[in-house]
Amino acid sequence: MPPLLHLQDLSKRFGQVVIADGLNLEVEPGAAVGIVGPNGAGKTSLFGLISGDLRPDHGAVRFGGRTINRLDGAARCRAGIGRTYQVPRPFEGLTVFENVLLAAQQGAGAKKNASYALAGQALFRARLSAEANRSAASLGLLQRKRLEVARALASRPRLLLLDEVAGGLTDPEVRELVEIVRAANADGVAIVWIEHVVRALMATVDRLVCLAGGRFIADGTPTDVLASPAVREVYLGTAMDLEVPA
What percent of the chain has a predicted confidence (pLDDT) above 70? Predict the structure, then answer.
């Protein structure tokens, strides 16, 4: 069986800035993979290459056994790639439910009653059911992060790309978010999670990859990767909180 996601010699640069330099990565169905790296390493741009927001200069993005380089972001979402954004992007003129319903209809292609059921399920999984009728503009940071996750889940992803959804949250809020992500993974959704709150990754993933300078410099168990001299060198002078949420 082919991997769910396969990056093959993926390269991208903006002028002299190298975003991806011959990246190779395989993610199996149902896996939970974390990505760490210093600021400016190209982590969010990597998600753009996977989700269709960016096009590679060279190499291939393969999903479910087929090359998807020519597919735009909408088509990749329909194929099963869901993602969140570092800065939440709700439609503030809509309610929480309407935001998620739109994701179910446009992202998953669900029709009528099926879209309502899918949206309700996504809200439940993200623990937002009680906020369904609130304006998205009125949400606090935690609820906006949950709404990002709910919208992505409503697209019926086989692969969920999480971009720093724990950033700015308190420890109890991080633990709640970890539980939501774990539950999605337990339901069979493969997770690739970019995060600076490393303790959240340590509580969730079984594999960690470090991206620096457009290249993967470490790939293995979270403990081994974080103990790697190469990883510690790129994080020199920065704080890495490795406490695992209880």
Answer: 96
